[in-house]
């Protein structure tokens, strides 16, 4: 599940389902939002490190576990207003709401929702052998966890579309070339801690101001994007082609898609 500890003003948030490559279940979404709130209330925390337990960062959503309870799907997507964050979006954009720098230590597989969580961090330090992918299209779905708010500040328009559409893993080198990650390092955690050590020499108010000004300079129509993500995902969840995409992802042959609806 989610392990949380603080050491020397650094909060360490660990995705811990090693046997499932740290794939996300519903409880982990709830725990992540609680951890973000806890960090926000603690003025002694100067930086955050998000990491995966074991050899992988996160394999994405544990589809089988979440699909067992339709009510949990509704809870993930529910929001009072279209432009608000739902639970799935909070675990990505929640890191952006913190005034302290947030680092993602990425190794092994970083797929789907796992990559979107990493995108929510301010810095992504990645092992050279890591594989990264936005995989929702493989299941007939679209990325809907809020990463589309952040991606315009990282990728070109066509690169963002292609990454989300082909749904295949890319190498760390390719991710760096695209601008999706910050650095490649053979020891990403130690590199993160070295960067944090540099930042600890700066005023926390200065770092908070820089984060907010930088966010504003790359400002996107956040509420419209969040609304479009959720509405599009709901439409896809009830779309007959989504069932065909899931069957194809599970290995079914001779899948033929119906003509697209009007979008």
Automatic annotation (TrEMBL):
InterPro entries hit by this protein: ClpP/crotonase-like_dom_sf, Ech1-like, Enoyl-CoA_hydra/iso
Ranges annotated as spanning the membrane: none
Family: Belongs to the enoyl-CoA hydratase/isomerase family.
Protein name: Crotonase/enoyl-CoA hydratase family protein
Domain of life: Bacteria
Coiled-coil residue windows: none
CDD domains: crotonase-like
Listed Pfam families: ECH_1
Gene Ontology MF terms: isomerase activity
């Amino acid at each position: 599940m989610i392990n949380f500890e603080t050491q020397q003003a650094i909060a360490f948030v660990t995705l811990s389902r090693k046997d499932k490559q740290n794939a996300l279940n519903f409880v982990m979404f709830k725990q992540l939002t609680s951890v973000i709130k806890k960090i926000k209330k603690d003025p002694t925390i100067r930086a955050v490190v998000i990491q995966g337990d074991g050899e992988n960062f996160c394999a994405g959503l544990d589809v089988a576990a979440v699909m067992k309870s339709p009510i949990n799907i509704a809870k993930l997507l529910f929001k009072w207003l279209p432009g608000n964050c739902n639970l799935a979006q909070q675990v990505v954009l929640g890191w952006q709401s913190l005034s302290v720098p947030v680092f993602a230590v990425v190794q092994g597989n970083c797929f789907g929702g796992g990559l979107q969580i990493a995108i929510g961090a301010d810095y992504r330090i990645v092992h050279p052998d890591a594989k990264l992918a936005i995989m929702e299209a493989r299941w007939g779905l679209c990325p809907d966890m809020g990463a589309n708010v952040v991606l315009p500040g990282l990728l070109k328009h066509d690169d963002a579309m292609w990454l989300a559409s082909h749904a295949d893993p890319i190498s760390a080198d390719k991710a760096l070339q695209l601008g999706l990650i910050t650095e490649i390092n053979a020891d990403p955690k130690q590199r993160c801690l070295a960067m944090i050590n540099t930042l600890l020499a700066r005023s926390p108010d200065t770092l908070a101001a820089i984060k907010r000004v930088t966010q504003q300079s790359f400002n996107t129509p956040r509420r419209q994007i969040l609304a479009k993500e959720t509405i599009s995902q709901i439409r896809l969840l009830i779309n007959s082609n989504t069932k065909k995409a899931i069957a194809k992802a599970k290995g079914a042959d001779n899948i033929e898609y119906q003509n697209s609806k009007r979008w």
